[in-house]
Each structure stands twice: as C-alpha cells, then as structure tokens.
Amino acid sequence: MTSVDRWLLPDGVDEILPPEAERLELTRRRLLDHFVGWGYDYVIPPMIEFLESLLTGTGSDLDLKTFKLTDQLSGRMLGIRADITPQVARMDAHSLPVEGVQRLCYAGTVLHTRPDHMLASRAPIKVGAELFGDTGTSGDLEIVSLMLDSLLQYSLPSLNLELGDVGIFRLLQQKAGLEPTEEQRLFDLIQQKSADLGTALLALEVPSNLSDQLVQLPTLTGDESVLQRAGQVFADFPAVLERLKNTRKLAAAIQERFPAVNIHFDLSELRGFAYHTGLVFACYDQSGLLLARGGRYDHVGEVFGRARGATGFDVDVKTLVRCESAETIESKRVKVAPRTGDALQRFQAMQQYRQQGYRVIETDDSSLADFDFELVLDDQDWLLQPLKGSEK
User: Fold this and answer.
1) pTM greater than 0.85
2) What structural domains and CATH numbers belong to the chain?
C-alpha cells in the first residue's frame, strides 16, 4: 500500500469539510427543531443492534444494504443500521409503549453496503419523523404536510411530490393467488415497467381481466387525471376504488395547504414494498434529485409485540444542503491580540462577543485576511473594530 492509498476513503464514503459541514449541521438542527414544533419527541437509536431486531419485517432489500459483524461479547450477529425507521418502530413498540398516538423524530448517519445510485453516498445522514397509532388518512396528511413544510423552509426553486399506494398492488397480488417466486417475478416486472409483463402474466395463467389491470398498472403515472383513469381500470374492484378515493382526498388536502407544490402520481411505485402497506410518497427538487421519502408501514411493530398504525418519512440532509441555493454563512470572525489589557477583562470581553454569535480567536497572527473584526481596547471598553474591506 502506497502512502497515498492510506488517505483514500472507500467508494461512496465522503467527508464533509467547512463551510458545508456547518451548513449541514445547521440544517440538521433546524429540521429537528421544526419537528419538535409539530409535537415530535426526539430519540437517539443506537448505531448497531442485533441483526434479527434490526431487519425484522423489512425484507431482503434492507438486508443486502446492511453491514454485518459478529459481537465479540455475545457471539451473535450485529448489524450497522442502514435505516432508522425499524429502530424507531421497535422503540414505539417496546421501549415507549404509550397508549394512543405517539410522535417521534430522529437524526443520524446510516451505512449502506451499496449506494442507492451511482452518485449517492453510502453514509447518508437522515433526519426523520414517525407517527404511530394513527391508521387513517389524517395521519398520512399530517406526515406529508410535515415533510413539505420542513423542506419549504429552504431556498429550493420548486418541490415535486410523488404519491403512490403499494396497497393497490398488494390487493391485485392477493387476487392473482401466485406462488412467492411468481409474485417476486411480477413485482420486478412492474417495478421495471417492463414490456414483458403481459407475456409473463399469460404464462402464469392469470385471469384475463386481472391480467389487463396488472398490465395497465405501470402506465398509471402522471397528473391528477391518472386517478380518474385508474377508477375506470379498477371499476370492478371496490377495495382498490376505496384506496383511490383516499388518495384523491389526500392529494386535494395537500394541494390546498401547499398550492405551490407540484403533485405527481405513480400507482406502480413499489419502493419499500416489503414493509410498506399503503401510501408511499417522495419529494424531489426541480432537477429530479430525491430529497425525502416515506410511507405507511402499519403492523411492522407486531414482531416486537405491538401491532400499530405507523407512517413516517426521512430527509437526506446531504442532498438537501447541496440542492439548496448556497448561502454564505456569516463568519463574523474576530481577532484579539494576546497580552492586550487586563487578562481577565480581555477574556470576559471575548466571552461576551462569543455569546452574541461571533467567532473570537486570540492569536498573534499578523494577517487580517481571515478576520472581519478586531477586538480592541478603547480606554476602558473592549470594542469591535471593522477591518478594512469588511462590510460587516
């Protein structure tokens, strides 16, 4: 290994440097404070857990994303979290078993064995909120509203919201009565919006009417007219029509609250199908970068002894910071020459300005290029003196 190789980071693992690191931390804190303002309590789940607890009910996708290691104390397998939502669901079910609705929020780094896409980080920082104990559309409306309200704090040119419902595919899948391997094949073809879907359904001997509905499912993407077209496709399927009615009602309420947000529908979006049970949603910037996503995942806590309604989302903080219009953080750097005046009074003056948000640095450095002010002793008072060229 060469000396250069010693300083290389693994592919997809990044370090955050100034000033982006400060912007990222301010964004993380601002999001959490916003969630708390909506009544969400902050929790800090552990970075590692026993593997069976971390992956219970989440499906193979998360399993493949999770780094695994052996616990040297117990000999059991541990996982480094690839998603925080299952941990918070465990906390609601086991650690905080309150009656009624519970609102929890969190922030932290997750690790992925593989990136979500070519440009994605394998160590994203997530800030999220989870709502437990509400099974109705009111809970969906609250959690989507919180996501949009949080993102609208930032200087993003526009926001695009995508809505879907994995419950529709679940109903069609149950009606088809396929074997697990056949279900997986069908799932993959719909996710890929494959032209081979019709041929595969014919080979699986799915009834023609149901086959037609499944073939049309990947085409049900677009504006609000999609819901009307879907109503015609599933006219003989009351359970699906009820879901479409709820989606239309939810979309209307969201549009009323956030008229500037563009809403797009994709009824074949099956992201997180292994544990999502109903509404799924995602928010993108104008260039198509994913900022936040979430959905309903009722009954995931059942394996921990408590089946509850649940919905939530998380924000990718690194992506949000990089998409937001760059705003220079006002540094307000102040230089103080050591050994000037009385030592205690000098220290007290430095503390006073630090409490006001200034960065006060005591240094012998003669260069003033990195500073905006100089703290000088004027008679008995310590005053800020703007340096030449500073507009602050």
Assistant:
1) yes
2) 5-323 (3.30.930.10), 333-386 (no CATH)
